[in-house]
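Design request, C-alpha cells follow.
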C-alpha cells in the first residue's frame, strides 16, 4: 500500500477517533476472532456468530476444517457474515499443501506445500501461483489468511518440517517466497498472518497437544525470515506461537503471554509496528494449563492485538460477553488499561485500511 496523502491521513485520523470513542465493549470486540460450530450458514453456530457480528461483539470469524465441508457451505457462511458486518475479518488457513482449507476437493486451485513451491519455482513463479490462489480466496469471501509460514525447515520437526510447510533453511530464501505470498494476497485485499514467531521450525512437539519448549532447539537464525520481512515493510500481521523459549524469556511463559518476546524483541528490537495475534487459545498447550479468563487477559497484557479462539473445545455462546466482563474487571483493578485496548484498536484499524476493509 502506497503512503497515504495528507487528505487520506486526515480521514484515517478522524475515523480512528470515532473508533476510539466507541464503548469499551465494542473496542474489545474488535480484538476477538471467534470460531463456530457448523458447516453451512443455517446452523445454530452460524446464527450465534451472526448475532455477535450484528452486535459488534467480535471483530471477525475463524473458519476451521470442520467449517469447510463444502464449497457452498463455507462461501455461504462467509457471505452471510459479511452481509451482517461488511468490515469483519473472515479468517482461514490457506498455506497450501496439507494446510489448505479451501482445497481442490472443493474445486479450488491446489497450492503445493511451501517446500515444493520453493523447489519447483522461482519467487516470481511462486507469485504467479499465489495470485491465482489469492483471487479465488477473496472471491470466496475471505480476507485474512493465517499464512505464510516463516519458520525454518528441519526434516525432524513433526509439525512444520515433516509436512514441508517451510520454504527453506535460510532466512533469505524463506523471506523471498513469503514475500511473494504476501504480495499476491494483499493485492487482493487479504491480510496475511506470518507465523509462528519467533520460530517453530526446529521444535520437537506440537502445541495443539501441549506445551512446546524450544529453549534448547531454537537459535537466532530462526529470527532471520521475520526480521527480513519486517525490514522489507511486508510484515503487517504476526502470529506468535504457543512456544516456551527461556533464551528469550527466562520466566518460561509461552510466547503468547510473553511481553519480553512480543514487546521487547518483536516490537522494540525488530521494529515491528503491525498487529500481533495469538494462535488459537483453545489449543491444548493453553487450554490444559490456563483458565480461559487468564489466557485472554495474559494475551492482552503481553501485547497481543487480536485474540483468536476457536470456541470449539467447549462451545460457549456468550464467550464474547464474558471476555468483555473479564477485561472491564481487569481495568477496574488496574491490571489492564483502556490505553492498552486502544493501542490494539488503532493497529487493527491500520491493518484494515491497508487491505481496504
Amino acid at each position: 500500500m502506497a503512503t497515504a496523502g495528507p487528505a487520506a491521513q486526515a480521514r484515517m485520523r478522524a475515523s480512528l477517533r470515532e473508533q476510539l470513542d466507541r464503548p469499551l465493549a465494542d473496542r474489545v470486540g474488535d480484538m476477538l476472532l471467534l470460531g463456530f460450530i457448523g458447516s453451512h450458514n443455517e446452523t445454530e453456530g452460524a446464527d450465534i456468530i451472526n448475532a455477535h457480528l450484528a452486535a459488534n461483539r467480535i471483530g471477525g470469524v475463524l473458519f476451521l476444517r470442520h467449517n469447510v465441508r463444502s464449497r457452498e457451505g463455507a462461501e455461504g457462511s462467509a457471505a452471510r457474515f459479511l452481509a451482517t458486518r461488511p468490515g469483519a475479518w473472515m479468517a482461514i488457513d490457506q498455506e497450501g499443501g496439507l494446510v489448505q482449507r479451501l482445497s481442490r476437493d472443493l474445486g479450488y486451485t491446489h497450492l503445493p506445500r511451501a517446500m515444493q513451491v520453493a523447489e519447483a519455482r522461482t519467487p516470481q513463479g511462486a507469485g504467479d501461483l499465489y495470485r491465482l490462489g489469492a483471487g479465488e480466496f477473496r472471491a470466496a469471501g475471505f480476507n485474512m489468511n493465517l499464512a505464510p509460514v516463516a519458520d525454518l525447515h528441519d526434516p525432524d520437526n513433526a509439525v512444520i518440517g515433516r509436512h514441508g510447510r517451510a520454504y527453506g533453511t535460510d532466512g533469505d530464501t524463506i523471506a523471498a517466497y513469503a514475500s511473494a505470498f504476501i504480495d499476491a494476497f494483499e493485492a487482493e485485499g487479504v491480510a496475511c498472518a506470518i507465523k509462528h514467531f519467533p520460530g517453530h521450525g526446529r521444535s520437537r512437539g506440537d502445541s495443539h497437544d501441549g506445551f512446546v519448549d524450544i529453549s534448547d532447539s531454537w537459535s537466532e537464525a530462526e529470527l532471520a525470515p521475520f526480521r527480513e520481512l519486517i525490514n522489507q515493510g511486508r510484515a503487517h500481521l504476526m502470529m506468535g506461537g504457543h512456544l516456551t523459549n527461556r533464551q528469550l524469556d527466562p520466566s518460561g511463559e509461552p510466547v503468547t503471554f510473553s511481553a519480553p518476546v512480543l514487546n521487547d524483541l518483536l516490537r522494540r528490537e525488530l521494529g515491528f509496528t503491525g498487529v500481533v495475534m495469538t494462535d488459537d487459545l483453545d489449543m491444548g498447550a493453553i487450554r490444559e494449563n490456563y483458565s480461559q479468563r487468564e489466557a485472554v487477559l495474559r494475551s492482552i497484557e503481553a501485547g497481543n492485538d487480536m485474540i483468536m479462539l476457536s470456541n470449539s473445545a467447549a462451545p460457549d455462546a456468550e464467550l464474547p460477553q464474558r471476555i468483555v466482563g473479564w477485561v472491564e474487571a481487569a481495568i477496574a483493578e488496574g491490571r489492564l488499561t483502556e490505553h492498552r485496548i486502544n493501542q490494539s484498536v488503532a493497529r487493527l484499524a491500520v491493518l484494515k485500511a491497508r487491505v481496504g476493509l
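Comment from the thread starter after seeing the answer: thanks! The radius of gyration is 19 Å.
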